[in-house]
Design goal:
The protein has 338 residues and is mostly beta strands. The protein has five helices and 19 strands. The strands form three sheets. It has an eight-stranded mixed sheet with strand order 2-3-4-1-13-16-15-14. It has an eight-stranded mixed sheet with strand order 6-7-8-5-9-12-11-10, covered by helices on one side. Strand 17 and strand 18 form a beta hairpin. The protein starts with 9 loop residues before the first strand and ends in a 19-residue tail after the last strand.
């Protein structure tokens, strides 16, 4: 680790791109049993949804979010991308999940063994690659059970276990990870390297697969948009712009759209850094954490961008004319076959 590198603590959230928002809700709530903790709008395209799934309270490290672009082109997995999201489950839960996926007619591979962990691999209905990993330390995760969810507590997903990156070569990604971001090499397998931040373990893994000759990927529906990593505090987060610009990659200071403070950067893959707060990842947002279908979405011009909010809380707000409407209980189309 270089003198400029700082220590990240673990994953804060992952944001991917979905197609039809109702199908996205049906899959992540109705099948995987995550809670829709927030429904907002895409700040760059306010007529479309931004959907947030997590544990019962939106604990950092449990959040998987989606920009929903119905009718958009599907992406292509390739080099230069974060490709798969691994979700942690208890070590005794694999049999439950193989049956549950089978009952919902979802094809999967496995169990597969990688880095000493058993997992099953599959995709959501829009092609996003997912893994359920039987993590020995899943029970020690910061996590709260959603009592109204369709999955029993002893089998429920505990949060994001890690992400997978694909590259055609180790450089410049490995130096970027280790010298600039403070990742450390934890273990290796044929064609794979596992890196860790913070204390390592579930929620702090980054797996790099090297695929020589791989074509560049295309970010669109069914692919990951960005990965966000937690920092110890606001001071550490605010230190990143100067040193990162000097390292040959760009950084935007204070990228804040009614969400936790972040600094985005152009890199071999997309990262955000966010201060590590122990409460809900979205507690400070103007949007209610558990919106209902009857609540319209509003946006308001402001210093930090277009902030979705409750009607009447800010002057100049107007309702967003959403392109699609949906149910939020995950049972609209396919139902729950638990």
């Amino acid at each position: 680790m270089t003198q400029n590198a700082r220590q990240l603590l673990g994953i804060h959230h992952v944001t991917a791109i979905a197609g039809d928002p109702q199908e996205n809700v049906d899959f992540y709530v109705g099948v995987l049993g995550l809670r829709l903790v927030k429904r907002s709008v895409n700040q760059d395209d306010p007529g479309t949804y931004h959907l947030f799934y997590a544990d019962a309270v939106g604990s950092p490290g449990t959040d998987l979010t989606f920009f929903a672009w119905p009718g958009a082109l599907h992406g292509r997995e390739g080099a230069g991308q974060a490709t798969a999201v691994s979700l942690a489950i208890p070590t005794t839960a694999l049999a439950y999940w193989t049956k549950r996926l089978t009952d919902h007619d979802i094809a999967f591979e496995g169990p597969i063994r990688r880095f000493g962990e058993e997992m099953i691999a599959f995709s959501d209905w829009h092609g996003q690659a997912l893994e359920l990993v039987a993590a020995p330390d899943a029970e020690f995760r910061r996590w709260q059970f959603w009592t109204d969810g369709p999955v029993p507590k002893e089998f429920a997903i505990r949060g994001i276990h890690g992400i997978t990156l694909k590259e055609a070569a180790q450089h410049p990604t490995v130096p970027f990870l280790t010298q600039q971001l403070g990742f450390r090499l934890s273990s290796e397998a044929t064609g794979w390297k596992r890196f860790a931040v913070g204390r390592g373990g579930s929620g702090a893994w980054l797996d790099l697969v090297i695929a020589p000759g791989a074509s560049p990927g295309r970010v669109a529906v069914g692919t990951i948009h960005h990965v966000a990593w937690r920092t110890p505090d606001d001071t550490e987060q605010s230190m990143s712009p100067s040193r990162n610009s000097a390292g040959g990659w760009c950084c935007r200071r204070g990228w804040n759209r009614a969400e936790p403070r972040s600094s985005g950067r152009c890199s071999p893959f997309s990262f955000l850094r966010l201060p590590d707060r122990r409460e809900s990842a979205f507690k400070h947002s103007a949007v209610p954490q558990i919106p209902t279908e009857s609540l319209p979405l509003y946006w308001c011009p402001g210093d930090s961008g277009h902030i979705p909010t409750r009607p009447g809380t800010l002057d100049g707000c107007r309702e967003v004319p959403m392109r699609t409407r949906m149910r939020t209980d995950g049972t609209a189309h396919r139902g729950d076959k638990r």
